Amino acid sequence: MAQTRLNWLAPAVTIAVLTGPILAGIAGTVLPAFGYLPALGRAEFQAQAFSDLFQWPGFGAAVWLSLFTGVFATVLSLGCVVLIFAGWHGTRPFQIIERGLSPILAVPHAAAAFGLAFLIAPSGWVARAIAPIAGWDRPPDVLILQDPWGFSLVAGLVVKEVPFLLLMTLAALGQAQPAQSRQIARALGYGRISGWMKTVFPRVYPQIRLPIYAVLAFSMSVVDVAMILGPTTPPPLSVQVLKWMNDPDLTLRFRAAAAALVQLALVVGALTAWWTAERVVTWFGLRWIEKGGRGRCETELRAMAMVAVILTAATTVLGLAGLAVWSFAGLWRFPEVMPDVLTLRSWLRHGPVLWQPLVDTLVIAASAVAIGLGLTVWCQEAEQRHGLVPSNRALWLIYLPLILPQIAFLTGLQTLAVLSGIDGGRGAVIAVHIVFVLPYIMLSLSDPYRAWDKRYGTIACALGAGQNRVMWRVRLPMLLRPVLTAAAVGFAVSVGQYLPTQLIGAGRVQTITTEAVSLASGGDRRIVGIYALIQTMAAFLPFAAALIIPAVVYRNRKELRHG
Amino acid sequence: MQLSRRHFTFALAACAAMPAWAQPNPADWDAVLKEAKGQTVYWNAWGGSDIVNGFLAWAGTRVSEEYGVTLNHVKLSDTAEAVSRVLAEKSAGKTEGGAIDLIWINGENFASMKEQGLLFGPWAEALPNWSLVDPVANTALTADFTVPTDGMEAPWGMAKLVFFHDSAQVENPPKSMVELGEWAAANPGRFTYPQPPDFHGSTFLKQALIELTAFPTLLDQPIADDETYTKVTEPLWTFLDALTPNLWRKGQAYPQNGSRLIQLMADSEIDIGFNFNPNEASNAISNALLPDTVRSYVHDSGTIGNASFVAIPFNANAQAGAMVLANFLMSPEAQARMHDPAVWGLGTVLALEKLPDAERAAFESIELGVATLTPEELGATLPEPHPSWMVRLEQDWTSRFGTAQ
What is the DSSP letter of B251? Predict the structure, then answer.
């Protein structure tokens, strides 16, 4: 009896922790969008906020920007990833790329965006490198950063989404037996790319569909990257929602809520369109496979894929390197490629101020990860012990926080929090971070958990160990490495959160990321460099720990060292 | 539209009951000090400047040593965020224990908070250090953008719009808006201003309006009607229409705030910038942000100046601590440090003749930076227009230039 109750409890609590804040947040957005917010003296439903919104002169442009940048960034990222797999999977260069791109996943979006901004600005590193050849003594007056079409924003998104999709695809490939398919396709005379596209891709795509939807939704509604790289006249819709939320004129919150709902509708619309496009592509794809072409322009396509992927990796690495140099720079004017003097001054000045936000960042991330990890293990144990296999629908629920635009429910959640007087604490921020951290932990830990050989448990039971003892003494120690990796992923996700911390923390909870974005408004690259580096380190060190700890703990257990 | 909205928020503010609990009384300063001890003051202040943040951190150390008050600087990217939060708290009936204890404020935000009853006070004119200022000679201390402060906010710094240029690039900078327009036409892409409603951007619009309009006296009063507004602002829009294609990036992108202008000049992207801190260029030089060939200048007809204030929200949690901090900011020690170009360089609010000799000498021994103008060179200070002009200018600017693709 007690057993039955227990095994339902784990998934139930997890789902409540995930969906509770989301549902509350959406309610807090929907009601004011339709003019209902008794605390602001309005208690009748009306559509005033929407007509205000539609009349705002930047509305069309802001909506278009959201759609265009989101869809374009997703198509580009997916294209790169698919081509690199098709053209290079199973080769030596691919292994190098795989190893090179994985750490980039840990680089927070904002840090990557700052780095990119310094690289591609007309007075940035690339322009400085060209300047002596082109004879520039002043940077060319061309619009690259914050261009009204959103291209630099797209670039900023692509450099982060390519590593994400690459690792997701890699994880999915395990079940698709790509090596056998490739061999058979090659034996039948198919080119590398067309063989992979025709045999492996159709089996892999359904498994990476949810990550792709998450990329599309994220790219359409991202705020921090858009504030750094996106246009301002007008900004994309999500940034404008935040501006209205922060306006001293509280009545603009009605318009902000309406715009947040429009943002949600845009994302749902784009996802539906994508889903429809999948059907169309499938139809044409089947014709293409049936026609039996063995592939054209394969060499060119392979080269293109390799260049594109190297470019995305190099951009992030060079961008961070540029910021690192800035953090040690004295006077550094255009067109000098390196600063006049290197100095520790900026670090000495900001080092002491960094502690408090750094400690807060770590406390929040560690708490969110601990709770997220606890819930995940609890759910996985329920699955192991009672065979509760999550349905496809449950998987959608886990992805919900990644697919819904943050701005659509966080602003509502903030309104509710302020109105109920419970905002502003670290606890509230941790609770919201869990919503975003838990899905990633769940996704990275469930496969290793399922893949664990149950026979070890059977043996332990036969030797007289109870279920809990099996978990503590056998299962978790054997899964140490994936558990730590999942924790590191969760940690990186928490460190990178800007909007949840800013909105729910009421400005009182300051993390490295919120500090970085607010200081970036001052534009001094030395400070931006310091914060971006610290932010990257905070996200990065747990990954290093996830590699080192198992190696040390299992220094005399060779088989366990690699998980 | 604007009118109905103001009415709405006003009615909202009027609905909330007046607070009724024991509040610290600045006239009994010892009691305030006693109550303040051990309090944490959440000071919501713009956090985009490393120099300013450094000064605030220093003030935190000092009030902690001296009065046992802990300062927590909540860094804002826009002061309106703080106003919005207090308003939200008031609507939610949160009449005590609010999240904000002190706000760095002036102008439109002060006018809006005062009008909506969101401020604690009056208290500022009862502070011990108020005796060191001269509100008669310096009217900006009691009239914030023409709105009487009525002791609801305490001044702590004097700002004045100052332009700067790299003398190695531009020998004779334009000394008026009309000349600036001509200069930009001759040097396209080498000037820009921060995107309103950033306050540096809005200040540029107001400076241009004051210089260009045929009716400068009407700016001291609230906008009377649409007709007046159109008549007064017409020359400004004509000027901006002509200027925009000659701006940096042809006006398709704007920097986000005043500090960005410095980075842009450091990157050689622009030749002329401006800031509300007369010492900003010298600061940037001593911090190796700008080359030492940069110099400051003002327009011949004078430039806009105003005071920076701190205000305490009606529901602040640490009102006594906030007052102690405000009083400390007005102290000769803090003012001299703030005025020192090596630290920040903002103008002082104190009347130097009211200070004891030693402290006055400390002020007089401060060395001005290489790009800082002497008080004579700073020229005439133009008063800020009534806040209603700024609100309307920002809205109009956004629909004319801020949303056009």
Answer: G
